[in-house]
Design brief:
The protein is of the alpha/beta class. The protein contains eight helices and twelve strands. The N and C termini lie far apart (53 Å). 37% of the residues are buried.
Length: 292
């Protein structure tokens, strides 16, 4: 049974791009479920899957996040990973789909959970906006036009990996990935040709996946006149190779195998290499032993 991937909204569950990608469990929000029912829901997931990973946007209501942590605390379980995502809504959904793909592989829970931070760095998430004048979630500056600093006109914004904003005119484009990707895009009340044709051609994407616009996108981007997009690696074999090439270590607190600098399940940081007097003493003793 694959490790369960859970989300806080149905919008985060995109259609699979192949027949082998498992689904994801959509958790019930606090306003529609009392606390005992939430405990029962999570307990069933643990009984079925052993471990499960919850991916939620950093914009998730505080009450919902507090409920997740309260359930985990009451169950006293290190088998639940709660992972916030700072990506825009569609970018987070693409990251969830990648985790769903990898959950069917032979990765341990700790490695799969820790891979979310790695994969997020390779997702090019952004949007075409009718205007960038009210954008406040991405640290970019509205570019000036030939006639001066004017707020009007369509803008293309990249939220990550490196924030960027350009005016969507002429041959100007966003800095794109230097590896093969598929482009998932979600039109709002704005034409999608700039994204599905110009951007897709300039980024040399291998496939296009149109999907409905997530409900939170208009608030995230401060306008409903947009087309949200996310370019990411679609091939599970490449994702597997990228994650498996990372150095693996054992968590010093819960014992799970992990990659990166922190355990996704117990949040314990990886111990840094010893470099103090004690470590030097150990090295000297090993050298003396080797020379004797």
């Amino acid at each position: 049974m694959p490790i369960a991937i859970a989300v806080t909204s149905a919008d985060l569950v995109l259609p699979p791009t192949d027949q082998h990608t498992p689904g994801a469990h959509v958790l019930t929000p606090p306003e529609r479920q009392d606390f005992p029912s939430a405990l029962a829901e999570v307990t069933r997931l643990l009984e079925l899957h052993g471990y499960f990973i919850v991916l939620y946007p950093t914009t998730t209501p505080r009450a919902y996040v507090q409920r997740l942590h309260a359930v985990r605390a009451v169950l006293e379980s290190d088998r639940i990973a709660l992972l916030p995502s700072a990506l825009p809504p569609l970018g987070t959904a693409v990251l969830v789909r990648q985790l769903r793909q990898l959950s069917a592989c032979d990765f341990s829970p700790g490695v799969l959970g820790a891979s979310a931070r790695l994969l997020a760095h390779y997702i090019y998430a952004g949007a075409l906006l009718a205007s960038g004048s009210r954008l406040d979630r991405v640290p970019v500056t509205l570019p000036a036009t030939n006639g001066g600093r004017q707020p009007g006109g369509q803008c293309a914004v990249l939220a990550g990996p490196t924030p960027q904003l350009v005016r969507a005119e002429g041959d100007v484009t966003l800095a794109g990935p230097q590896f093969s990707t598929a482009l998932t895009y979600a039109p709002g009340s704005l034409g999608s040709e700039w994204v599905s044709r110009r951007l897709a051609r300039q980024w040399q994407v291998q496939a296009l996946h149109p999907v409905p616009l997530p409900a939170e996108s208009a608030e995230w981007w401060a306008t409903a006149k947009l087309v949200e997009f996310a370019a990411a690696i679609p091939d599970v074999s490449l994702l597997y190779q990228m994650v498996s090439s990372m150095r693996q270590e054992a968590c010093r607190w819960c014992g799970l195998t992990l990659i990166g600098d922190r355990c996704a399940f117990c949040s314990s940081p990886v111990a840094p290499p010893e470099r103090g007097p004690r470590a030097i003493g150990h090295a000297r003793r090993r050298a003396l032993a080797a020379g004797s």
